[in-house]
Model the fold of this input.
Amino acid sequence: MNSPTVSILLPVRNAVHTLPDAVASLRAQTFPDWELLMVNDGSTDDTDACMNAMASGDPRIQVIHQPPLGLVTALNRAAEMANAPLIARMDADDLCHPQRLERQVAALHSEPGLGVVACRIAFGGDRRRNRGYAEHVDWVNRILTPEDHRLNRFVESPVAHPSVMWRREVQQTYGVYRDGPFPEDYELWLRWMHAGVAFRKLPETLLTWNDPPDRLSRTDIRYTVQAFYEVKCDYLARILPADRPLVLWGAGRVTRRRFDTLRNTRGPFAGYVDISPAKIGRKIDGTPVLSPAEIPHNALILVGVAARGARDQIESHLRATGRLPGQDYWLCA
Done:
């Protein structure tokens, strides 16, 4: 039997109610040349029987069993067993639209310099109740080009994990998932982008990203806000030049604490930027609070203000003063 074109990694734990629809969405793909590597990570419901039943009717589906060792172990086990030159992700509670694989395979075949291709996603949840997730989806869907992904990688994770497809040689060269006190997918994207891997997102909406209440990102400490900031600060420290003063835009306590890891690694900031007259001119832990007009001309600015409207206004100001993204400033929140 010839090797498939795409290997799909699908870790599963206690997903008996959602897995059949997820797998059905794969079977409905217009591109049928795939294998599905489903890893049962110690399920305690009827997921095991459900997986075995689906595999018995489709030779493209392989079921792998392991004790509850966790998501990273399950993903890496599937990645190591993948037979295809292209590897895609999928989760047990999401839905692929029919042309997802076809469109992503075509993109990777037509663009040799592309390492990872994602797609726009539909938010499968209650936008009113889960506004934060819905706004994250809206933001992700605006990040399309390789340059978009490079410049926005320190804001949030710029791709939805189950929406990606990558070349097998990328994981062979730069490694697969790492286990630690951080979000495993975000660390992987930062590591690959740091190595120069190009990411692109298709403009079509090709996956529904559902938002169940027991999503790991809601319940696991690896996905806390602080965990995200610690891993982003780690990779920021690797690219910041030592010969330029570093300024953090955001003098509030919450913003400053989020960048503690970077300050501990690289040393004190040259200044904090704020627009509040009550803060400008003060010193916080010995660091002066500056107005936007007082930023040193040679400073490298980290925009640590998380509010999206404020962040957009700050970037407009920086561009208007001739500062370039990825060179003179980075959006980091």
Observations:
- The mean pLDDT is 96.
- The longest helix spans residues 225-239.
